[in-house]
Design goal:
The structure is a single chain. This protein has one helix spanning 53-57; strands at residues 14-20, 28-33, 37-41, 49-50, 73-79, 87-92, 96-99, 117-122, 130-134, 139-141, 149-150, 159-165, 172-178, 191-196, 202-203, 217-220, 228-231, 237-240, 248-249. It is an all-beta fold and 264 residues long. A 4-stranded antiparallel sheet has the order 1-2-3-4, with no helix packed on it. The radius of gyration is 18 Å and the shape is globular.
Length: 264
């Protein structure tokens, strides 16, 4: 449970994303930088194999604006909870790719998805639903990542850092967003939104600050409907039990959270 650790392979490789199969114990995928690649393990990380078909999917115009020398990397990986061979891979900045055969072959960029990909998630119980946080806005797929649609109505800022979904109702999902040119400044003006059905995004407050100077990090509980957690770079952790309508601050037991929060 994390009390002790040992090396898990891929020493010397710059790993930027991990995805663990919920269906097949021991199946793990890793997304890397230098070069942008996908590796797979079927024994919990003891042995790894590069999915070399991903090399043929790479494009010359992929690049990362975040780190010199601006080489691209696989920042997001998601595995279908119903099919461990169905993988989504997101590049910052480049594409969202899909594989239905465990990474042996890959599609081109999926239509409607944002090319500046920060996060990808499948719904835990409705695997046809998938969600993306992208620099141009949040996007959703209802056909297992084949096609995507952006939803931006109601958002004050489109740059999306995190997305999360309710474990029971896939049409209810959440996004942390900020204005594009302020997102990584000291005045990000970040906010949390909820999307339900066909309605526009609704900004959530309920005890939260009106905005954050740095992008907070969001996660939904995978087994408890309506439960959300929000962590900040100042070490604050917030919890909601009612779909984000109200929040309370938990005791300060963690440090700064920069990119991802996991609730198991």
């Amino acid at each position: 449970g994390g009390r002790t650790w040992q090396a898990g392979g891929l020493e010397g490789v710059s790993i930027r994303s991990l995805a663990v199969s919920a269906q097949c114990p021991g199946v793990v995928y890793a997304g890397t930088k230098d070069p942008a690649a996908v590796y797979a393990s079927e024994d919990g990380g003891r042995h790894w194999e590069e999915r070399t078909a991903f090399r043929r999917a790479r494009r010359w115009y992929w690049c990362s604006p975040a780190e010199k020398p601006f080489t691209p990397y696989v920042l997001a990986l998601a595995l279908s909870p119903a099919d461990s061979n169905l993988i989504l891979a997101g590049i910052e900045v480049g594409a969202v790719l899909r594989s239905s055969d465990g990474g042996q072959s890959w599609s081109g960029h999926r239509g409607g998805a944002d090319r500046d990909c920060h996060q990808l998630h499948f719904h835990p119980r409705q695997p046809n639903w998938a969600y993306q946080a992208g620099g141009g806005g949040p996007a959703v797929s209802r056909d297992g990542g084949i096609t995507w649609r952006k939803h931006r109505s109601g958002l004050e800022g489109h740059y999306t850092w995190n997305v999360a979904c309710d474990p029971q109702q896939p049409e209810i999902w959440y996004a942390v967003t900020a204005p594009f040119f302020k997102a990584h400044s000291t005045n990000a003006q970040a906010a949390l939104y909820r999307h339900a059905g066909a309605a526009p995004w609704q900004k959530l407050a309920g005890g939260l600050p009106p905005s954050w100077p740095a992008l907070p990090v969001l996660a939904a509980h995978p087994n408890a409907a309506g439960h959300l957690y929000l962590a900040t770079r100042q070490g604050a952790l917030w919890h909601s039990q009612d779909y984000g309508d109200s929040w309370h601050l938990l005791p300060p037991t963690i440090g700064p959270v920069w990119f991802q929060l996991l609730v198991l």
